[in-house]
Each structure stands twice: as C-alpha cells, then as structure tokens.
Amino acid sequence: MHTRNPAGRLLALSLSTLALCLTQVVALAQTSPSAVGIVVDATGKKQPIGTDFIGLSYEGGTLVANASGKHLFSAANTPLLNMFRTLGVKNLRIGGNSSERLTTASTDADRAAVFEFAQADNLNVIFNLRMKPTAAGETTTDQAYQVGIAETLTRDYSANLQALELGNEPDNGSFTDYNQYHALAASYMVDVLAQPHAGGVLFVGPSATSGRVTTWPALFANDFKSTGKIRYVTQHWYPAGNSGTVTDQAAERNKILAATFPNSYLTFYNKFVPAVQAAGLPYRMEETNSYSIGGAAGVSDTYAVALWGLDYMYWWAAHGAVGMNFHTGGFYDAVQPRTVSDTYIAKPLAYALKVFDLGGHGNLVPLTVTNPDNVNITAYAAIGDDGSMSITLINKSHDATGRDVSVSLDPGSVYKRAKAWTLRAPANDISSLTGITLGGAGIGTDGNWAGTAARLSIFNTGRVTVSLPVASAVVVRLE
C-alpha cells in the first residue's frame, strides 16, 4: 500500500524545475553574444588606401574575340561594366601565362576593345608586354613587335594605361636567372621610351612567383629606381598554396579563416616589402588569390573565401600595398563567366570586394580591440575624404566554435548619423556557394545591387553598438 506524499512530490517538482532553469541559464550563457569593445584613434598615423586598390587580373587570352567577333571587354558589355562598377573594381591587369604565348596573342582590335571598356568604367589598366624568350615560334623581331604595341597604347590610351608590365613571372622558367631578365627588361624600357608618344609611360615588374620573392623584387627595385619610370614593384602570391594538394575542403575552409592564418602574410611581407620600400618604391600585389592553379573547389568558391578575402585585402592595405588584383580563371573567380554573356554571376569572392568598396576608402587609422573571449574577429577603421568614418568588422568564427558578438564602437568623436550593412550566408554556413546577401540583398546577374543599410542609434557619448553575428561581416558608416 502506497501513501501519498504531496510535500515530497512538490519537492521533486521543484528540483526538476530548478534543474531545467539551470540548464536554460547554462545554454543562455553559452549562446549569448560576446562583448567586444573597439576604440578608434582618429588622430593616429594614417595609412592611405589606394584609389584603385580593388583590382582584378585576367589572362591575356581573354582579350581575343570569340567566334562571333565579340569581346569580353567591350564598351557594349553593359552587364560586365555594371558588375565592375558595383564591386568597386578600379584596376584591370591583363597578363598571366597566356600573355606570354604566341597562340593567344591579341590584335590591335582586341586591345582597342579592352581600353574602350576601361574608358567606359574609368579603369586603370596594367598591360603585360610579352618577354618570354623561349616560346615556340619566337622570332627575333618579337621585342620590336611588343615595343610597337607599347607605342600604340601610349599614343591612343594613355589616360587609362597605368603601367606596362615587364613580363609575367619571368622567374618561372622564362629566364635562367635575374641578370638575364634584367638585361632584357632594361632593353625593353630603352626601346619603349624612345618611341614618340612614350614620354609619360611607366613600368611595373618583376611580377615574380613566390619562389623568388626574397630576391627579384629587391633587385628590380634597386636596379630601376633611378630611372624614375617605375610605377610600383609587383609581386604574385597565393597564400593558401597549390589547389592540387587540397583533399579536405572543410579543413581548408577552417585553415583560411583561422586567426593564425594572417601570420603567413607577415612572413611573406617581410621577405620583400622592407627592401622595396627602402628603395623608395611602392608595391602592389598584382596577381593573387586564395589557391594557385584555378583555386580549390569547395573552398575558393564558398562563402568562407568572402570572409577570408575581405580580411586579406584590409591586411595588405594596412601594410602599405597600393592595391591588389585577384586573378581569374577557375574556382577562385570573383565574377563568372569569363566569356561574353548577357548575365554574370557574383561569386563569393565578389562580396569581399563589394564590402571593401563600402568601407575601404580614404585613410586607415589605428584602433584598439578589447576581446575578452578571444573571438576570432578583426576590425579596420577608415576616414574618408568627406570626414565620414567606416569601420569594417569581420567575425571569422564559425561552426561549433562560432560566437555572435556585440560590439561597442567608440569612434573618438560624435557623429550625427550611423548605419550598417551586414554580410551573411544562409544559416551562417561558410560552405555556402550561393544565397549570400549584403544589406539584405544579393548582387544580381545584371551587376546591380539593391542592398540597404540599417540605421543605428548613437549614444550621447558618441558610442554605437552593433551586432556581429557568427561568420559575418559588418560595415558601420558614421557621418
């Protein structure tokens, strides 16, 4: 026979309820946003951001007209022009391996089309002069032919021709050593400058692979600085390595978003930038992307690369690079296709360019970050020429270790208006291939973007609070 014990039952229910409440409190504590504080030093040392910092790099073979006689780069290609404008692309480099092959050589009409495209979008163009001395079918008159191309470009398109590139990756089998390259590069410069319309032309080089980064850029800078004809020293790099070695896409996505990954940037920077700057010349990362040889499927074409690319651009901007040109021709494309089309797709990397375009103008200024939970975030502040301030926040934390963040911004002075655009992927999934939004909208296949900024409140102290979800980026504009 059992007796009823209301008091005992009440006690059991109370303990059960308490346990449930404690579980909810623990869960709340685990998922509550991490508090981060950012203080901007608006009067600190300023680092100018190049006005044509955002660039794309295309193979020379893309200049050649298709079977219908149409050009990818043409003033009539409105969708591609719209895409470039939306992304903020201001520098177009024509080079790559195909620019050194006779089989993909461009014609006068091909080159005219690309410069008409540049004129329509006010682009600066870096144009490679072929220097490969061992290509099949090479003739002894090829240097004269390249000099003739240079004369035509400087005569007809000087407003958009930023520089002539002296060969593409000449250290990659084209020359036996730097001295051989230097002799031919010097000869090219003398011949080009002797032409009637070459008075204002400038050159870039050596555009070496990462394998010669410790020697060729410094040698080039010191050998040619006295000419006064070097726009900047150019370098190539794919920091994630060779795409052919990728076997675990999830691990690679984690790798490029790891808080320690930018350590490799500093190592690479130290190999050539101090020597170039000591020679008094600026530098540009004029061919770069995530992985070499077309990028890695499942990594270079995912949302992970949008977060990586944005941080990558700001890191180099903060370290004095005058610009970056992301190479095209594979999974790592910012825009696809690379052929004449009525529509173009903004791939995940394109969103990195667009977010940088929203916040990366004027001068970068220092800031300090208080991050007690050590969340994997980065932050950059820029003051525009109009006095506005843009603060770009990147939350690279994701998956099980991801943390939402509540950021308290102190811009150092009181602004009247604040707004923010947020970059997101479906379900905060860094493996997403599509569905990415910025300011609540994607970039359309016609190149147009209709994203909007959310209004933020400004406290009396001038501080602004903004949410930075897991695997996201936010640009805060203070006006």
CATH C-level label of the largest domain = Alpha Beta
CATH superfamily of the largest domain: Glycosidases
Helix content bin:
25-40%
Number of domains: 2
Q: Give me the secondary-structure category.
A: alpha/beta
Kindly state the number of beta strands. Answer: 24
Provide the residue-averaged pLDDT.
92
What is the C-alpha radius of gyration, as a whole number of Å? 26 Å
Taking the sheet with the most strands, its summary is: 8 strands, antiparallel
Number of helices: 10
CATH architecture level-2 label of the largest domain: Alpha-Beta Barrel
Please describe the structure with a list of short key phrases separated by commas or semicolons.
eight-stranded parallel β-barrel; TIM Barrel; alpha/beta; 479 residues; eight-stranded antiparallel beta sheet
What does this molecule look like?
- This protein is α/β, with parallel strands linked by helices and 479 residues long.
- It folds into two domains: 33-46 and 363-478, Immunoglobulin-like; 50-359, TIM Barrel, CATH 3.20.20.
- It has ten helices and 24 strands.
- The protein has helices at 6-31, 78-87, 108-121, 142-156, 178-193, 216-224, 249-257, 263-278, 303-318, 348-359, and strands spanning 34-40, 47-48, 54-59, 91-95, 124-129, 161-166, 203-208, 230-237, 241-242, 283-288, 291-292, 324-327, 335-336, 345-346, 363-365, 367-370, 377-383, 389-395, 405-410, 418-424, 437-438, 454-456, 464-468, 472-478.
- Strands 2, 15, 17, 18, 20, 21, 22 and 24 form an eight-stranded antiparallel sheet that branches.
- Strand 17 and strand 18 form a beta hairpin.
- Helix 6 (216-224) runs parallel beside helix 8 and helix 9 packs parallel to helix 10 (348-359).
- The radius of gyration is 26 Å and the shape is globular.
- It starts with 5 loop residues before the first helix and ends with a strand.
- The model is unreliable at 1-30 (pLDDT under 50).
